[in-house]
């Protein structure tokens, strides 16, 4: 999923500046989906409404469904899940993606 064309660059830059306090790893910039997912985890209510207005519920649902483990914390997942399932009617898993480790791989 590529959110970048649908997002105003200044809005995305503002989200990244506010919600990331560490430098990206490597030379590649953060993806728009990663930035939005981080904002979804740390947003206050005014920012939640702004995300819903700028992106819309379909794009936010897409971000949730494409999220990697650790991108959205469980408490925020539940909040967004309730809001977005109601707005879109799309199913969203009850739990955010989790990291799994197999002892045989270690």
UniProtKB/TrEMBL annotation:
<feature type="region of interest" description="Disordered">
    <location>
        <begin position="87"/>
        <end position="106"/>
    </location>
</feature>
<protein>
    <submittedName>
        <fullName>Uncharacterized protein</fullName>
    </submittedName>
</protein>
